[in-house]
Write a structure and sequence with these properties.
This protein is an alpha+beta fold. It folds into 2 domains: about 55 residues, no CATH class; about 70 residues, no CATH class. About 25% of the residues lie in helices and about 25% in strands. Strand 5, helix 3 and strand 6 form a beta-alpha-beta unit. The longest helix is centred in the N-terminal third of the chain and has 21 residues.
């Protein structure tokens, strides 16, 4: 169990494989029950982790705030290593760039992206690109 400032995460990568499914079922049931009573929160699944956070707590919300305070033409470089960074990447716009450094998870990174199997990557996911596994060439 990891207590974060605004959320809580349950990591089960160290749970023995024989017990993992049972633990996931129990944790999912507890989370779903809690979420029914707290509609302002959401469940996020990840690679052997499940997180509960406020629904409006997204990294993507920092992008408009930064541009409001530092100027609308601000060019940003965003770095991320998991699925929770996807919203931030999409909020950047065409004049900024994003770098995902981690393991691609087939069918999970972006609905417009596919990967035949998990593979280590360090690629850009630039807004407007049709293939998110292609590195960004330059920030224009």
């Amino acid at each position: 169990m990891e207590r974060k400032t605004w959320s809580v995460a349950f990591h089960y990568r160290r749970v023995p494989q024989v017990a993992r499914e049972a633990v996931q079922v129990e944790v999912d049931a507890l989370i779903e029950e809690w979420l029914r009573k707290h509609p302002g929160y959401e469940r996020l699944g990840g690679n052997k982790v499940v997180e509960v956070r406020p629904s409006r707590m997204r990294k993507s919300l920092s992008i408009p705030w930064l541009r409001e305070h530092l100027g609308p033409e601000l060019r940003l470089l965003a770095l991320g290593d998991d699925l929770t960074d996807e919203h931030m990447f999409h909020a950047l716009g065409v004049k900024s760039a994003a770098i995902f450094a981690g393991w691609a998870i087939a069918g999970r990174w972006d609905s417009s992206c596919t990967s035949p199997s998990p593979a280590p990557i360090c690629s850009g996911c630039c807004p407007g690109q049709s293939n998110c596994w292609t590195p960004c060439s330059t920030i224009t």
